[in-house]
Specification:
8 strands, single chain, 223 residues
Length: 223
């Protein structure tokens, strides 16, 4: 069993052989530091960027330890946990988006950001080609999207498509087939939620693509 005293270790570190090993190790760590920075610079994904930066932090800390550069050690000790946290966050985000692709979104969580409004049977919620500034969730009743001949069910969101059009105009008319209760949200608030909640943004895009595809098929078959 090896048993060294601090004095022996200190004496060995003072020898020329030890100094050459430390210099070589410091050089290797410096090369690792430099290479990991280059890899991070050319990374095309956030995951690879954060991994490269974490390796850079490890090499940087070891390089600082072998060279005795306290500012270098301090920099990488601070940055490593930050890069690790960002890495875990993006991994969790990707997992959430992948999971969201396998299930339908529940728009219940949108209600705190929305406002109630009612319409009578025969009223139009909005008309085709008018300037849009709101999206809606149907709480109760029936609404028909006339141009697509689609009757919406309770809990469905509609009126969101104009947010993504160049003109900002409605692409269809929404007619109340019964007395209805709706919740509406401004496009400004919807944009904020889109960027703050990537899972919601992903579902919104998926919903728009599905509806666009349904409209295309309906036009192809003439109904």
């Amino acid at each position: 069993m090896l048993n060294f005293t601090f004095e022996q270790i200190f004496n060995w570190l003072s020898t020329d052989v030890a100094q050459r090993h430390i210099t070589n190790l410091s050089l290797i760590m410096a090369w690792g530091d430099a290479i990991s920075v280059i890899i991070a610079t050319y990374s095309k994904t956030i995951i690879s960027l954060r991994l490269s930066l974490m390796f850079n932090n490890i090499f940087g800390m070891l390089s600082g330890l072998t060279s005795g550069a306290l500012p270098t050690i301090f920099k990488h000790v601070i940055n490593f946990p930050l890069n690790y946290i960002r890495y875990k966050q993006i991994k969790r985000l990707i997992e959430n988006v992948n999971d969201s692709d396998k299930k339908e979104i529940n728009f219940e969580w949108l209600k705190p950001f929305m406002h109630p409004i009612g319409h009578y049977k025969g009223d139009f919620v909005f008309h085709n080609e008018e300037i849009a500034d709101k999206a809606y969730v149907l709480v109760d009743g029936e609404v028909e999207i006339l141009e697509r001949k689609v009757i919406l069910k309770s809990g469905e969101i509609f009126g969101e498509l104009a947010l993504f059009t160049g003109s900002g105009k409605r692409t269809a008319s929404a007619l109340c087939l019964t007395n209805v209760r709706l919740l509406y949200i401004s496009y400004h608030d919807l944009e904020q939620l889109y960027f703050q909640n990537p899972e919601f943004g992903f579902h919104l895009i998926k919903l728009i693509v599905r509806r666009s595809e349904a409209t295309r098929l309906a036009l192809m078959h003439g109904y």
